[in-house]
Amino acid sequence: MTRRRLLLFPLLFLPLGPLVAQSPASQKPYVVLVSLDGFRYDYAERYHATNILALGKAGATAKAMVPSFPSVTFPNHISIVTGMYPGHHGIVGNSFFDPERKARYGMKDAPTEGAFMRAKPLWVVAEEQHVKSACMFWPMSDSEIMGVRPSYWKQYDGSVPNLRRVTQVLDWLTLPESERPHFITLYFSDVDSAGHSHGPDSAEVEQAVQRLDKLIGALWAGIQTLPLPVNLIVVSDHGMQTVGQTFSIGDLADFSKVQVVNNEMLLSVYAPDAAAAESLYQSLKGKSDKFEIYRRKETPARWHYSEDPRIGDLVIMAKGPNLLNVRPPNGGNGGRGNGGRGGGGGARGAHGFDPAEFPTMNAIFYAAGPNIKPGEVLEPFENVNVFPFVTKVLGLTNPPNLDGSESALAGIYRQ
User: Fold this and answer.
1) What is the mean pLDDT of residues 297-320?
2) 167 is catalytic
3) pLDDT greater than 80 at residue 3
4) CA-to-CA dists, residue 410 to 85, 105, 230, 239, angstroms
5) Between vectors from CA 353 to CA 408 and to CA 215, what angle results, nearest 5°?
6) Does pTM surpass 0.90?
């Protein structure tokens, strides 16, 4: 066990103070970006996450951070680190089919599927501009993207203890200056897993929030000991909603001529031709109040989800806090293992819904450090705006065609 890990144990049980690390102004800034998967916008207050709340008071917080559509894990993690909506960066779902490549993408394949990316994530942008980066997990960070990897990265392994993850981040920050990464990611899945299995109102979610809150406190306390200008940003990808039934729509129309990819409450339909797509659309349109069907080009403008053929020719979206399936819950296609989280039942919490209709999808943003003004409270903003804020702090040049804007978080930036 390393000396730093030994020091972390007592820090896990201390409340986070409002201190901000002091360091020479001449040093180039650092950013540690932490994702607490599935951490809903109201969990910190509701479940008394004292360290996370203190981080916000020491720096800035948002009333909510609005996820991109669909509000699922991989698309939103990639939106945060590319500044682009899923319909533009290419990871349009946790699972999808690419008609051009004639290949299917799934979360389990992510380490070998960097070719599906159409945008450069922060670690690639940093490395290309000669700024070292490190990833202690983040969706797609263990995949080579456009020929580039972070200087330091770990193959995703959910069994790696959370404390070891925190220790690794602090160890990277204590490397010699020439080897030290200036941009680091860190990822935890505990809250998301508890929310899916037990629902957002459960004791299990409260316990997961408390565990991660202690880790954030330990991470920030560890950062305080370093003579470096480190900015800590804690976000989540989406929230969580208690869900009801799973509705099978397989008997409402003939699905035999199309391919369906199920992301729980959203079904992506890929047809062999325009005629087959239109036939299915006409068969399902208005058939039930449990879902709405869209031609891809006619999806709501606020989704930014109408251009990429990977989205599907048709999009079927659940109405109300329910899940969808094409076959019965235990009947193969549409069930567990196809990109959703158990469309076959058992999940008491889910996400992926339209944030405009379900505020429970909203995520978190807490940040503190030498480049962040203290005591700032932001109105809700879209998660694509995190990317240009981080590049501003790190002094990086943005790639073209961002959906996010530097102006959204300009009010919390401190030179």
Assistant:
1) 97
2) no
3) no
4) 20, 36, 18, 25
5) 65
6) yes
